[in-house]
Design goal:
Four copies of one chain form a homotetramer.
Chain A lengths: L2 H25 L3 E6 L16 H15 L4 H6 L2 E2 L2 E8 L8 E8 L6 E9 L5 E10 L1 E2 L10 H7 L6
Antiparallel strand pairs in A: 1-4, 2-7, 3-6, 4-5, 5-6
Chain lengths: 163, 163, 163, 163
């Protein structure tokens, strides 16, 4: 057995520990989405255009849902949509191309007809760059009328510990 | 003189009346931007994606500024930038490709370091589809530090009648 | 009768003449779409990002179709889709925010399963800024399989004079 | 020692082997960028809008350059820009939200004033979904005039084996 492989074993253990921690986090109502800023997302101020952050939040909440094995594309196939009803964003610092950002998403409270998420985006220096929230509405894909949050989703969320 | 031209005269008078009304409106702090929804702006729900509305608001406020002969691209050339500090959007009804929308923009109050706009978007049936607001900050393009609203802008705004 | 209204009459006649010219142009297989460049479309090079031009072309060909009373949103409702099969763009000059551009669109030849458009974009100084072409395929919205160009569309196109 | 950790060791070794292969690939002029399709990228046809692929190609070539330690955001800071001169895309199959795609990028030949990349995008089933190419031009950021490819870039590329 050579040295590089020993290092690899070491990192495997480390990774295993991290994954365990991750599983605990999930019940703590947090998800982190790492996003590499795209060049196309910048504007002539040299920073990410403010309209793009709505996409970052969207990635955040879909990743959050994925953690609970709720995959939005399957939800839509099953006839449930989640259009955005309101959106609030505060831009604390600019984000530039070449940076990675981390979207921290958490559920505000258990959903009913509406589901509310809060977001904080951090840069690689752990500085808060953006904060915000969204309210989405469960909607029947055919009638386009609001419906209650499907029970399998409520079931999936019941072990969440809110702060 | 033939009939179609008489109709044209009639519409010319109508148009002249409308333009006069428009000039009065300007002092009343309103602008209307007509936007034809782009196919590329829709998502797989079949409606305009919620992130696009930040672009609609941006078109609205830049048109509003144009009415006061403040052209944002010249402002940037002169070293003043207006990054968005916060954004709120409420989505009352969806917008579809094939529709024209009308972004009604007005200034909330006289600006200082910040400038605040409110927006209401209507569809062709005069239904309110979206409402929202933004706060932007005057920033020195070189230092990227906040500055006071340039005096020529305040001068241009002084005849505005706020509701 | 006052002087401004006389001017308005004059412009009404001018407008009427222009509209007639426009109707003749339609049979000549051209359409012109005026687009005001959006701030959000710029990137940190200070020019419109190259990915946006595909949207400009799309606006161009949908306007071209509108001239023939073929409204794409109705076409989709009737079960026919037109996905893009290929796209070529040449970028001759940059476009900046603050500019208006003019997308000149024309049909390359009568469509069969495919429909091909060519585009030239000009700036306000009549300089060619972009040229390109697209091939789109008529597709059944349900089966997503290629179909022949609907006969009502071929009918609408039969008076087109190709160069 | 428990079973899950043994599995982790196994994957660590596998991973180490893959990384070695990757390093060899780099000299073989290939890069692979994995991209999770964003919901916002879909249109009302239920697939990724064709204009987005220009962004995917951009991510592909910037990742390709990163492999050679050429970071585009640093290049721009040092006064060299790479605007796109032409773009060709062929859309073989649609891409849907919920899918991951893999952008395979390679350099066509050693650059001079121009640099040319070719792209093939695959889905998770290893099906070719898109192919294309771009030509970009080295430009002085101040004068905006074409310049020769900087020598440090040519130096970095000299070990590339073209097919």
């Amino acid at each position: 057995m050579n040295l590089p492989l020993i290092f690899n074993y070491f990192f495997a253990i480390l990774h295993a520990c991290k994954m365990t921690k991750f599983k605990i986090d999930k019940m703590n109502n947090n998800s982190v989405s790492k996003i590499a800023v795209r060049y196309a997302e910048t504007d002539q101020m040299g920073v990410v255009h403010h309209s793009i952050y709505a996409q970052y939040f969207e990635i955040g909440r879909l990743d959050w849902l994925n953690q609970f094995h709720i995959h939005y594309h399957k939800m839509e196939q099953e006839g449930v949509m989640l259009p955005v009803y309101d959106l609030q964003i505060k831009y604390h610092r600019p984000i530039k191309f070449g940076e990675n950002i981390f979207v921290n998403t958490s559920l505000k409270k258990l959903p009913d007809v509406k589901i509310q998420f809060v977001y904080r985006i951090f840069n690689e220096d752990d500085q808060l760059v953006t904060s915000g929230s969204t309210t989405l509405v469960f909607v029947d894909a055919v009638t386009r009328k609001p419906i209650k949050c499907p029970s399998y989703i409520l079931e999936a969320f019941k072990r969440i510990e809110f702060d």
